[in-house]
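Listing S7. Sequence submitted for prediction.
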Amino acid sequence: MDIAMIGLGKMGANMTTRLLKGGHRVVAYDLSADAIRSAEANGAEGAATLAEVAEKLAAPRAVWVMVPSGDPTEQTINKLTEALSPGDIIIDGGNSNYKDSQRRAAALKEKGFHFVDVGTSGGVWGLTQGYSMMVGGDAKVVESLRPIFETLAPGADQGWGRVGPSGSGHFVKMVHNGIEYGLMEAYAEGFELMGHKTEFNLDLTQIAEIWRFGSVIRSWLLDLTARALTDNPTMEGIAAYVVDSGEGRWTVVEAIDLNCSIPVISLALQTRFRSREDDPFSEKLVAAMRNQFGGHAVKKE
């Protein structure tokens, strides 16, 4: 099946490579000419403009957008509507807010375009192991893209599926990332606690390897944790500063809107915020309060 890949960042480039290996014809476009040349070297057909992308694909066209969420995605989709024709399919495989995807689907439908939102997970490992894809959109349109999904997924019938109408793919991916926040925080706190039990002199790398096989908490994230501990047992040179992509925030906001309690995910997000503060004022204020009501000593800087 022919398809265009718009956005040749790390994941977009890897997905292009996987599609090419699967026998698909891929037209590649990126703002970076070097990225286009790299894709061409791997067997893709480069395009210098979105209009050229449309020219190189036979209708009905399928165009996969893999650019940062927000304005970059918005601008790319708007420009694509000028280059493509009614009946063509625009796929957003990035981490867009599901409400934006619902809005885009409705707006594109009015213009005669089909829209499919694909929450994509797999990171840098997707090239070799396949991508997990949560797909939202019209059932018939999604089915027409089956050859693409089967090639990108870990298996033809594994790791992907249509989860519902437009917006649902990105909604499920949002929750997926929220769960990821909680799992990562739980692993991190557990290993930190073991590190504090100095009398046992625990080998955290060894323990991670033990847990990887047979334990009820084994997972791919634990595999990656074990890998990180093997590479750097003390995390030397790594700042305790954790960013968030935005989807954890969206998950917590959605829970508030739906009156749904998700304390683990909420606290994991708050912990990431705390990691970015070099000198948290609130802890100083708590120390001052204890001094005021109980005369407890205050540790000086």
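Caption to Listing S7: primary sequence and predicted structure tokens for the chain studied. The first strand starts at residue 2 and ends at 6. The mean pLDDT is 95.
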